[in-house]
Amino acid sequence: MASLSSHKWPTVLKEDQITLRPLRLRDRSAWLAVRKTNRAWLSQWEATSPISHENKNLPSYFEMVNYHRGEGRAGRSLTLAIWFEKNLIGQITLGGISYGAYRGGHIGYWIDERYANKGITTRAVRRLTSYGFEELGLHRIEINLRPENAASKRVAEKAGYVFEGLRPRYLHIDGSWRDHLCYVKENPRI
User: Fold this and answer.
1) What is the SS3 assignment for 138?
2) Where is the N-acetyltransferase domain (predicted)?
C-alpha cells in the first residue's frame, strides 16, 4: 500500500494538454495576471478570514510558493498550478492529507473563467484523485462546495464524487460563514 514515504516532491501530473505542477517563483507574473483578471469571478467562492485584519495581511506570492513547497515536501498538502497547454489557468489542492485510521484529504480548486465549463477542471480533479488513491493510498477524498456553485457541483459529480450531506456554516467565504455541500469519493481498492 502506498504511503507518505512513497510521496515524491515536486509532484507533476499530466493528462493530455493538462499539466498539474507546483508553482515556481518564475510563474509569478502569469499567476498574478490570471488572478487579477478573475478577481470578481473568484471572490464569491474564495475563503476569507472571519478576523478582518487577516484578510489585509495576505502572504506575498513568494511566501505563498514557499509555504506550499514546505507543505508539499511534508506530504500534508499538494497545491498545484493547472496548466492548459502553455497557459496557467488555475490551481488545485489536495489538502488536509491525513494517514492512520482516516487516510483522507480534500480537494479544492479555482479556474480562470475563460476556461470554465470546458471539462478541464473535471479532468484535473480526476487526475489528482487518482494520485491520492494510487500513489498516496488514501481511502477517502472530499470536495466541499457552496450550494450556489452549480459548475463546481457538476465537476464533483462528473469526477465520480457522491453527495454525502450538508455542512452548515462550514467555511468563511466572501465575508460570511457559508453552508457547503460535501461530495465524497472512496478508494475502491482500500
Assistant:
1) coil
2) 18-188
